[in-house]
Amino acid sequence: MKKKFIYTILMAAGLVAGCQKDLLTPESKNAVSTLDLAQFSTTARIDGQVLGLYAGLRSGDFYGGRYLIYNELRADNFLAQSSNSVTAYQTYNYTVGNGAQEVTDFWSSAYNTINRCNLFIEGMAAKGTSVIGDAISKNYVGEAKFIRAVCYYSLLQLYARPYYDGNGAKPGLPLRLTGNSVAGNYDLARSTVAQVYTQVLKDLDEAETGVPLTYATALASTTRAHRNSVIAFKTRVYLTMQRWTDVVTEANKIVSTAAPFTATTGVANALQADYTKVFASPYTTTESIFSMPFVAGTEQGGGQSALSSYYYGVKLYSLNPTGIIGDAGWKATDKRRTYITYTGAIPYLSKFPTGSPTYADYVPVIRYAEVLLNLAEALARSTTSVNTRALALLNAVRGRSDASTVFTAADFATPGDFYNAILKEKNIEFLGEGLRSPELLRLGLTIPGKGTVSAVPSTSIQYIFPISATELIYNKLMTDNL
């Protein structure tokens, strides 16, 4: 489908996964392979490369905005106010083909970042460690492995069947673990979903022992990987795989046994008392475990990729009145409703309000509130009960924004009712933060319809993205989802 678009061919030169055949031009003297690892020759150069890994992760086509957008628009909480295909209308409408911008650009961005990580890890082993020493090298390589794990996990959420479907036996992704610095033969078959998840967990386990326990500043503790951020992300991965006891094991490392729930080692992560402070400058609360930073005038987010453009600034997508904002259990006095702002009769999400020309809202990747709710769900499902601690965790998240609501065991006739209450709380708490579609897919739930768009059952071909046209052109061992 649309595999011959010229822009996909031009884009291939910059892709890790979108690969090239032998070129008819001489080898570039500026190619990475010809630099004799000069980029690892000084501490300053190595430091710059580490920051470059994060720059790849926060590009507009990735966690700078569009990854969150795609996962929200595929679900039921937003309605299109425009049919512009450049701003993810095909994702919203489930009409994306292999050559759609969102399909090719996200694939490209994620694999480019993976390639940066691969080259960095190899360069540190070959030269960088001898320059900066073993201790700092271990920190930096841990950060690279964390970022690589985030990339592969994120790709799985859009381009592969959920883990529950065949226990990971379905086709996953090309698992690229060595760096590509020059053109060559990049044919690589898809690993299974389970094999990719195994690599994600391996990277996270190794990152946990490599990254720093903490940093000297709140900014670094929010924007760079530390031990707690790696553990937090592992709770998300294990939850996606429905490995409930593993979620509990990991979460217990950074969640105290009783309220007020806090991390007792490493960065002092905890719920921010005022929900609105999480989404306001300086964006470095103890709840902000890992976020993508943007700074007005110097490192601002980009135009149509910015969350504000979609939700509030340009108002490309409004909130669906019959989505979660229409739920009667979400009280009008709940502070999280502060971010529902009306233009006339149309509701919009104003959680990320800093639009043109600054686009300086930080983008949350994972927050402490998610860890608490991941733990609550895992405790409930692993014990098949309205678990007492799980109930306290749910109340902690609800109570900081709505003190008038306190759940009791009597509110839930069955454990299933309790599971659903936790899922609903996540839908409210993380509205617009890119969790909605993955939350549905990990459980094999139907994606509800919205507006004129029909519901998508788990058996539908539309449940996941097709594979990027560029990958299919240049990787002859790649197969499509269609």
Automatic annotation (TrEMBL):
Any Gene Ontology CC annotation: cell outer membrane
Primary localisation category: membrane
PROSITE patterns per record: PROKAR_LIPOPROTEIN (PS51257)
Cell compartments where the protein resides: Cell outer membrane
UniProt superkingdom: Bacteria
InterPro entries according to UniProt: SusD-like_N, SusD_RagB_dom, TPR-like_helical_dom_sf
Domain (RagB/SusD) ranges: 354-442
Keywords: Cell outer membrane, Membrane, Signal
Similarity section: Belongs to the SusD family.
Protein name: RagB/SusD family nutrient uptake outer membrane protein
Phylogenetic placement of the source organism: Bacteria, Pseudomonadati, Bacteroidota, Sphingobacteriia, Sphingobacteriales
